[in-house]
Amino acid sequence: MSLRQLVFTALLVASFTFFALTLRRMARVMLKGRPYDGAFEQMPRRIGDVLLYFFFQRTVAREALSWHHLPIFWGFLVITLGSAEVLVNGVVPAFSFELFGSTFNNVFKGVLDITNALVLVAVTYALLRRIIKKPRLLPFNFEAGLILGMIGLLCVSHFLMHGFSGHVVKTMPISMYFAGFSVGMGVGTAHVIADVNYWLHVGILLFFLNYIPYSKHIHLLGAFPNILTRNRKQPGILPKLDLEDETQWGVGRYEQFHWKSLLDTYACTECARCSNNCPAFNTGKPLSPMHLVHDIRYEMAERGAELLKLSPGVEAVVREEDENATEPTAADQVILDALETKPPMVGGRIKDDTLWACTSCGACEAVCPVFIEHPQKIIEMRQHLVLAESRMPAELARMFRGMENNMNPWGIGSDQRMDWAEGLDIPVLADKGSADYLVWIGCAGSFDDQAKKISRDWVQLLQKAGVDFAVLGLEEGCTGDAARRAGNEFLFQMMAETNVELFGEYKVKKILTTCPHCYHSFKNEYPQFGGDYDVYHHTEFLQQLVEEGRLESGASKDDSVVFHDPCYLGRWNGIYDEPRELLKSTCGGATPIEMERHGYKSFCCGAGGAHMWMEEEGERVNVNRTEEAVATGAKTIATACPFCNVMVSDGVKALDKEEEVKVLDVAQMLWSAQTPALGGSESDAASPEEVDSEVDSEVGSEVGSDA
After folding, report:
1. Does residue 685 fall inside a structural domain?
2. Counting beta carbons within 10 angstroms of the beta carbon of residue 633, is it exposed (0 to 12), middle (13 to 18) or buried (19 or more)?
3. Do residues 589 and 554 make contact, with C-beta atoms less than 8 angstroms apart?
4. Closest Cα to residue 216, out of 290, 118, 299, 282?
5. Most CB atoms closer than 10 Å: which of 177, 605, 681, 686?
6. Cα torsion 480, 481, 487, 489: sign
7. Are residues 99 and 188 in the same domain?
8. Containing domain of residue 220, as a range?
């Protein structure tokens, strides 16, 4: 073996050994997290996910502004194959892709050459974009310049080392161009240029390999396994806590996350899509989902390095697992004392205000190309604040008391729960005994003045269609969604267990609700408590009734309608088409107007995550959203959620547009289409008391005994 080979081999072994040790340390730190089940189930589908979302970059490809990332990523894969030939050839000079045949070698080298050119163009664009355009959250700094510069040099050194080598293949157009400069140049000089660029190319490769784990490009290591192990179940479902185990009362230390949640932090591409689509961040709140993920990773790196120094078994002391703990040595005690004096992750590196700013809308998770679950991390840290620290905004403390004392977040007396139905003949389950459907009115539909109007129109539509239903009346409580999203798992579990028991007594099998938050809880989270039901959102059910001809379609009085997607209906449950089809049938076939931010990119109304009951400082999320809706020129903003209806209505008031723009639920618009003789929906009435009694008798005669 020549001296050159010895030096090259030693450099290669040292680089890959250091890289392997780094990966091992990162994995050990990550695996300090809690166990995570189901990461390797459905492996064929998971492999398909890797092909679709990692190699084909499906999520990135749907973003028009990310075109330059695609040639960089795909080109880097091709360049990696070409670099593998260079590295193996350095140890075994006889190796080259010629061994696979000259045709394969020539085609691959041609593709490699063109790929390097495309990557160089894309990298140059990315560099200039950061310097000139200065995208939000993507600053030009030393690290960005270093990484883009290294990729650019990798491409340039490829052209020069092949072009001046004297044996470049003709299928490599760019390298052949540089080969032309060697004509008339001494063989020795050309060889030196080729050799210098060869070692530059190899040096960049090996440096980049070991720099990746410490840079923003750590996602090159984390994205693949994160996509492979991603949550393939219904999104937005929070895990059920074992409340008898105090070590599970939320996340206050990084190792209280499960290891998959920590793997998320290695996968972050720092593309800033999450933050740029976050309603809190876009209205000046102290929450950037991207930076939150980074903070968890920094905490994991710092704290994890100390945890790795502890003797086996001593870590149980940190986890407060006394039955598994072993006596710490003097050296262990020094580490434990140092950990005790470090600022906490929650309340320290990650501020309380950051966590409370989240509306749990899921916009961050929906646009993430590597499936990071930001909202779950935030809510788990909220659980720590509420359950372990009893630290929360005063408004939430009041909300919790209202839910505990009166089974609703407003704290209104539960004896007023049926006031919304005054003047209507609404069947109650306790009197009727059984019904095909339980209609869950919900807290908003029972107590909020605007939402009460939605409830009235909604149940009258069911009566007109002859649906066999009943409500719980004064027995109805709250699903507990707001409590769970605000971190009060104790309160949520109490309410869920109470409801499941009540539903069992009445043998409830099917539930209808106008509230996407209640829908999400019943459909996706109540199964954790043995509550398995067929749950339908009112837009789904009403659209079905219209299709069956049990309700009339036809033009409403609204000339133009824009639809606002509720977060818990669309992003969390994938219901986008039904409300739009319902609006089309209501508006005489006219397609609703779309805001720029719609569908999976819909902007939150600002009510989720218990924000309906929290004070908001600075620019208001609901006003931001309402401005976008009003700017479309629509005369009606249609909603499909009582919370959205309240928040958008408040936004219209804040903009002083009440005379120009109406805010109506789709059920209200459909009821208006059913009652042309009334001159409008009952929702236009100021209060239930003002409803014409003739309307009620008319509806009652239509449905007869079916009511």
Report:
1. yes
2. exposed
3. no
4. 290
5. 605
6. positive
7. yes
8. 3-30+63-228
